[in-house]
Amino acid sequence: MAPNPSPNIKAAPVLTAIDGILDLHAFRPKEVPDLIREYLRSCRAAHVTEIRIIHGKGKGILRETVHTLLRREPMVRNFRLANDRSGWGATLVDIYPPGAPLPPRSAPASKAQMLESAPGWYRLLQRIFVKR
Which long-range contacts (CB under 8 A, 24 or more apart) does 88-92 make? Predict the structure, then answer.
């Protein structure tokens, strides 16, 4: 009979291929900032410049967290909500390819400025569902 593994021994990390899709459903909110930064770096190193981050619909708290992080990340060229079956449950991100110089970042736009430039349907959903 094989001995039981010690509960203090951690399993080795599982390596997977970078495919440009990051599903945040399995992660705790406090893990998200480091996870997104590291995933963007890994994608850039692997020459994956189009990324889909699945954050879910919910109340939009995780979506706002993701968008705030993306606004601050210098390697992000632009990002937008997915305009497909996932609706506002995913964000599409374009990053600069490796070797391309990263532009200096200006101060991030305020939430009000971002809302003004959002599509009409998104502003309507914000007025209906988001408490201010």
Answer: 88/57, 88/60, 88/63, 88/122, 88/125, 89/54, 89/55, 89/56, 89/57, 90/52, 90/53, 90/54, 90/55, 91/52, 91/53, 91/55, 91/63, 91/66, 91/67, 92/50, 92/51, 92/52
Residues paired with residue 90 on neighbouring β-strands, in sequence order? 54
pLDDT of residue 48: 94
What sign does the CA torsion over 22, 26, 32, 34 have? negative
C-alpha 37/C-alpha 69 separation (Å) is 8
| Identity at 32, one-letter amino acid code | V
Q: What's the confidence (pLDDT) of residue 80?
A: 92
Cβ atoms of 93 and 55 closer than 8 Å? no
Distance CA 32, CA 62 (A): 9
pLDDT tens-digit map of 43-92: 999 999 999 999 988 888 899 999 999 999 999 999 999 887 766 789 99
Measured distance CA(40)–CA(95) in Å, rounded: 8
